UniProtKB/TrEMBL annotation:
Transmembrane segments: none annotated. PROSITE patterns: DAGK. Residues 13-142 form the DAGKc domain. This is DAGKc domain-containing protein. InterPro entries: ATP-NAD_kinase_N, Diacylglycerol_kinase_cat_dom, Lipid_Phosphate_FormReg, NAD/diacylglycerol_kinase_sf. GO terms for molecular function: kinase activity. It comes from Pseudooceanicola spongiae.
């Protein structure tokens, strides 16, 4: 996520009512519930309220209700998936959004340089300032960190099946990767139009990044493109299962190299046509099967995000 291309809308601390929105399932987790209580204490009982959301419920309606009730700041309490969902509902509202990181990876919150401790994060939010940013869209769905086609969405799908049978364990997550690779048949055939330039590619993975922090975390290039408010599009190089295992190992060991393991394409407006009429697309850990072509673009409406004073420039 790039935040350097626009000016802050204000440099003052957040004032006014605060609404924390937490995933209902996460909110019942003892650790998350305790973290939210600690953050509420920092925000102030007379200033902040907690509202729970179930993914089956209308999040747009919940966000509108909070704003209509006077909220000046909405805090997404959860991981990247929760932040993405709430950001999608807050585009163009003008109401400020902040993130209380409670997830596993928290790439979006960490990219904003927010502390991972809930009390410290709440203090940083209260003392922060707001900035209007553009977010990534794929077929009109918001993503904050990345969207992808190919082997990664397939891993997420397989992981759900494995978790349902064996439980949510780290070993099962690793097994879902191995099982997906073993089932790999052939790379995708894609026609990519990047800022008007058309190209054909065969690849097992198309990874479209909007988080410079996430790229840096794994030793991948493309951060400069994101700072220019573009997408960093990584096209995986490899045709076989052995290639996939090699790519996975190099990703884990942060030894992937541009040109050997992936091709980097930088663009602001991207259209991807798949050989199949429909394909699985993942965005910030969520996934859906959608019709080709897939259009990646920056949002027309802005998201007003809270940044800590010692956050990125």
């Amino acid at each position: 996520m790039d935040i350097s291309a626009t000016e802050p809308t204000t440099s003052t601390a957040i004032e006014g009512p605060i609404t924390i929105i937490a995933n209902r399932k996460s909110g019942t987790n003892a650790r998350d519930a305790e973290a939210i209580d600690r953050a509420l204490a920092v925000f102030g009982a007379d200033k902040a309220e907690l509202r729970h959301w179930d993914p089956k419920e209308d999040l747009d309606a919940l966000v509108r209700s909070a704003i209509d009730d006077g909220a000046r700041l909405i805090v997404a309490a959860g991981g990247d998936g929760t932040a993405m969902a709430i950001a999608s509902s807050m585009l163009g509202t003008g109401c400020a959004m902040a993130v209380l990181p409670l997830g596993t990876f928290n790439y979006f919150a960490r990219g904003l340089n927010l502390p991972e401790d809930p009390e410290e994060a709440a203090r940083a939010i209260l003392a922060g300032y707001t900035r209007d940013i553009s977010v990534g869209m794929v077929n009109d769905r918001v993503f904050l960190n990345n969207a992808s086609l190919g082997i990664y969405p397939a891993i997420l799908k397989e992981r759900e099946t494995v978790y349902a049978r064996w439980g949510r364990r780290r070993l099962m997550a690793h097994w879902s990767v191995v099982k997906t690779f073993l089932q790999f048949q052939r790379p995708m055939k894609l026609t990519i139009s990047a800022d008007g330039k058309k190209m054909d590619r065969r690849t097992p993975l198309l990874f479209v990044a909007r988080s410079a922090f996430q790229l840096e975390r794994f030793g991948l290039t493309g951060g400069e493109a994101i700072h220019r408010d573009q997408f960093a599009m990584l096209v995986g190089l490899g045709d076989t299962r052995a290639d996939l295992f090699a790519l996975a190992w190099r990703l884990v060991t942060r030894s992937m190299r541009e040109g050997r393991d992936y091709e980097l394409i930088c663009a602001s407006d991207v259209t991807v046509e798949t050989a199949k009429r429909r394909a699985l697309v993942a965005f910030d850990g969520e996934k859906t099967r959608d019709y080709s072509p897939f259009e990646f673009k920056m949002s027309d409406e802005k998201l007003t995000i809270v940044l800590p004073k010692d956050g990125p420039a």
